[in-house]
Design a protein that fits this description.
- Four copies of one chain form a homotetramer.
- Chain A has 278 residues and is of the alpha+beta class.
- Chain A has three domains: 164 residues, Gyrase A, domain 2, CATH 3.30.1360; 65 residues; 41 residues, no CATH class.
- Helix content of chain A is 48%, strand content 17%.
- Chain A is built from twelve helices and eight strands.
- In chain A, strands 1-2-3-7-4 form a five-stranded antiparallel beta sheet. A two-stranded antiparallel ribbon of chain A has the order 5-6.
- In chain A, a hairpin with a 7-residue loop joins strand 5 and strand 6.
- Chain A is globular and about 75 Å long.
- In chain A, 45% of the residues are buried.
- The interface between A and B is large, with 52 and 52 residues.
Chain lengths: 278, 278, 278, 278
């Protein structure tokens, strides 16, 4: 582990009003990806690619297994409704705080005023780009908080009658914070990030995605750069869209100009191939 | 699909006060397990075992892959806190109702009076064997219901101000009902059942387990019987426990008596082997 | 199951010289995808999309879980070296013929003359586009076959000395045929097909992919069409490639022309968004 | 990582005649299991269990998720037929040497003389307990080696005509060595070991299992001890077997004697519960 990554271990990345992401441990770095890829290619290829080129090649061509050779472990504190979206990523290991064994804590998520927004007009599952006016937002925030206080009071009261914890907690809201250890390989972390730092993801999970993206960027800088270039900021075009692009592009830049604009020699050829009429 | 199973498709098995399990579809039956096992053993073994014996042999010796060849799909309506335990079983396919796309419904779980119980004295994660007295239980039930009504009222009110659904729902409690389609293979269903119809599982998930167990029993009767005999009602003894049993058992019944008591000839020999001093 | 699909069950799709793919069973069809997707969207959305549009929307936006609700089971006979590539797809259920329990059969893959080709000059992992000349190809084929006969003879001879099957088989070549039952959900089948009917996949696994693609096309025609349009014949462009395309495209067709060329109204807007300068 | 584990990293554990297992990296140790378990139980339980007791409790009660928090990465060189058994464990990450990209090496497995044995009379899938006589064994070994030399010669010859590597290799035998990086969490490693260091596993995979068991024992001594006591050397008894044991055991030792014989107070009570008549 480099000193830079070592310095990140245990550091709290604050998320939302009371949550966090902390890196607990990481196995491997960019060189672990290269090491695993090279066992596939055998000794004959050892000098052909340098590391960055190899990692970018693997990412571009969806050779995903070498990225599985890096593993991250995080400690996360998050509202239950975020945990419910997060857990849908099945290829990960999880140990969560249990409301059956232990008392849930008096911590609930209240959105910041600028996140108190109307239903999106465009997007059936999202919120609008603008927040409610300050007063209206504040009144909603206050009301949310009062409800949470009241619910936690009821919870405490039920526990004081010795009602079983596993029953007493059923009226706690999904804004209640929970925590877990979460362990995942880099390939599946990238898949998580791709879906969860996307503009269509709910804001409240996006902030966790962004914190983990920052950590990943420090831990595997070459792989993260490749992920950004070839996955995160890439776009896929359907068969019909490709036909439209092909017929609309009159002339394409020649190979040397493509390279001047940032493609490798190999990518430049691949690029022209993709735009070739079938 | 036999007529008996066909008759189960779509039938609501009521669970808790407002939930259900419905079988949507099933691929394969006992004979699909046998068919898959026989591809491993090749044609030479076709007549050696009859189906029941083969299925029992596979279950007993943890040859689990043939059980993966049967697949079930269920439609389930369940409280969020049950869904959170359930989803920990990762080897399954899930589509859940979304509180971002759609309004959550005015349906909440309230435990029956006989489930309103104290914290267990023995079991840090469970409830006592006896319910609270009727009056105390009823007062807790009434209070829970009032809180749920109040929370749903607040939710509706927030939606009426056009607050985004994905925010408005954050104070809905984990007693709120959700629903999903859940698809799983038989091996993993057995694993789910083993953990979730166990006395240590929370009562509220156990009732769902029991409904699915009833369906599985009808759909794969031989496999279910083997599951009961070799897994569900079996016990594992540690190295030290085995030593104690071995030294405490003075004489074991002879092979013919073991068979008279229900073991097959092969099982009788395996039984004696397991109890042999190392 | 439609009559068309019913007619496919059990039918041998010949693959290579002695292999096959046979559909054993299928759970669900296009409507099962729609059914699962609609549980997510809730009742409010039931009439908004018609089925084809919904399926295409799900595929385009990588909402993959509804596609997991369809399940296929195949019986496959294939050379060991193909089985070794195939098994890398982990999200599937497998029961394979066992060379420990049973004798391996006297069936080996010999490539057709037109597949006897030189190492590709372009592609470190592939073969050239042209076959060797007929005579040279035939001499290689003959030599391969003689070696296989000799190896099977040695195997039989060792078995006749009562050498354990699990040892006797270790010099059988990876061209030896094996068979298995293989069960997979549609989402993961599409992932398999995307990688294995691609021109970079080894020819010998591609023919199996193509057989299963034909079966999938008959069983879930709408999903298969969407898979072809949005995944199989789509292309992804990296961040840099996108910048080049954006700056090279002088003017884009207006919305109505885009629709005339085959995009839906929604896709046309999405298309322009993707090509918008950041 | 302790110094003892650090000293194991990179060390070759020889397996069979030309293979090995090498530990490449490990994330976590016994304390990582405890750390993850305690997030479930919450702060209230921190002092109740000491580490060893907690780990043994988790193992005994199949609370498997904390064991997933430790991750191992191995570099393994192994014959193809062993790789084919190994790869059936799907919950792992793999990068294997590719016979499409690179030339296969001139290394083949030849069993030691004492492993050249007859088919087992008892076990359809295994070999006998005694080796063939020395002369017969040696003659089989020599013949195997000659065949391997001949096959590698043919392979080289085909490559020299520029036949594509992916075709030329199809007559190489499953005794040919390959290598891979293999990464797995501790829970799944224990599952692998349970099946593969068992007497029913093929000898050739068992030696790899034993090498990894030795490494695991050094890296997570408390967890490994619990695995041995509660899983590896434990036995499961079916419903009928339990009834026979219960009726045959006249009297059980009292609690204090059970503890004197090695059970904890809690285990002693659990033991009596398991043997109680239903």
């Amino acid at each position: 582990m480099t000193e830079e990554v070592q310095a990140l271990v245990g550091k709290e990345f604050r998320c939302l009003d009371k949550g966090f992401v902390r890196l607990i441990d990481v196995m491997g770095d960019d060189s672990a990806i290269v090491q695993a890829a090279r066992v596939s290619y055998g000794s004959g290829t050892k000098k052909v690619h340098e590391d960055r080129g190899l990692i970018r090649y693997l990412m571009r061509h969806l050779h995903t297994t070498p990225f599985e050779m890096v593993e991250f472990k995080f400690h996360v504190k998050l509202p239950i409704f975020v945990a419910r979206q997060w857990i849908r990523h099945r290829t990960a290991n999880v140990n969560e705080y249990s409301g059956r064994y232990s008392e849930m804590k008096d911590e609930f998520y209240v959105p910041d005023a600028d996140q108190v927004r109307a239903q999106s007009a465009m997007n059936k599952q999202g919120r609008a780009d603008e927040a409610f006016d300050a007063e209206r937002a504040e009144s909603i925030r206050t009301s949310m908080q009062q409800t949470q206080d009241m619910l936690y009071g009821q919870y405490q009261e039920m526990l004081s009658t010795d009602l079983a914890r596993e029953i007493a907690r059923i009226n706690l809201p999904v804004s209640n914070y929970t925590e877990w250890y979460w362990k995942i390989d880099l390939h599946n972390l990238f898949h998580f990030l791709r879906l969860r730092i996307d503009a269509h993801a709910q804001y409240e999970i996006r902030v966790y995605g962004e914190a983990m993206a920052e950590i990943a960027k420090a831990a595997v800088p070459l792989a993260y750069e490749a992920f950004e270039d070839y996955i995160l900021h890439a776009q896929r075009f359907s068969r019909t869209e490709l036909e439209i692009i092909r017929s609309t592009l009159s002339t394409l830049p020649p190979l040397d100009e493509l390279q001047a604009r940032g493609l490798s020699a190999r990518e430049a050829r691949e690029f022209l191939d993709k735009l070739q009429k079938d």
